[in-house]
Design goal:
By secondary structure, the protein is mostly helical. The protein is built from nine helices and no strands. The chain is elongated.
Length: 204
């Protein structure tokens, strides 16, 4: 019941909330071995491994998302969509990262490690992938932020006069290309340029 409630809260907030089995907090790695305790241990371990599998699906769905998806679906979105995507991605990954650092999740990792579970590697890999993706999202969101002002200027300017706004816009895009570690990828710059083209077409 607790895990279902966590997932529902996540859906309502637009963020991924990882389901954490309550039984993980009742596990004692220092207990003496008994048949009853061993059965409890196996039950707990099975529950934790099942949760790691579920997390894997949830997190990988987030990680594989790309801002180009809407364009590929034929939607004429503007650059605000790009900025919104990376801000939302950063917030979502930050939320997941904080959950990985929580005491309950750290306890889960300790149990998987102590019991030599084959899913401990998956657990650690997910944590590392989230941290890497979070570093990427922070970098991109930071470097795209100056574009917001350019978007506002383009929105507020009549089309015949927008030509004077193009040189400073491209200067900013060139700075993003040269300074952002993770956005200096042709495919991503192409998406951004397409979105600005859509904005200019809307202004006509």
């Amino acid at each position: 019941m607790r895990t279902k409630t966590q997932v529902m809260k996540g859906l309502l907030s637009g963020k991924i909330l990882l389901p954490i089995p309550a039984v993980a907090t009742k596990f004692d790695l220092r207990h003496n071995n008994t048949d009853k305790q061993d059965h409890f241990d196996r039950t707990v371990l099975h529950n934790l491994e099942s949760v790691v599998i579920e997390w894997s699906y949830q997190i990988r769905e987030v990680l594989k998302l790309e801002s180009s998806l809407l364009l590929l679906r034929g939607l004429n979105v503007g650059p605000e969509t790009e900025l919104g995507f990376w801000k939302g991605r950063q917030d979502n990954l930050q939320c997941i990262s904080e959950q990985f650092q929580s005491p309950d999740v750290q306890t889960m990792g300790n149990i998987l490690h102590a019991k030599e579970s084959s899913y401990y590697t998956t657990f650690k890999t997910l944590s590392k992938e989230v941290e890497h993706a979070l570093v990427e999202a922070r970098d991109v969101e930071l470097h795209l932020r100056p574009l917001r002002q350019h978007i506002e200027f383009l929105r507020e300017t009549e089309f015949p006069r927008t030509h004077i706004l193009i040189p400073p816009l491209f200067h900013t895009i060139c700075l993003i290309w040269s300074h952002s570690k993770f956005y200096s990828i042709p495919a991503r710059i192409i998406v951004l340029l397409q979105e600005f083209c859509n904005l200019l077409i809307d202004q006509v």
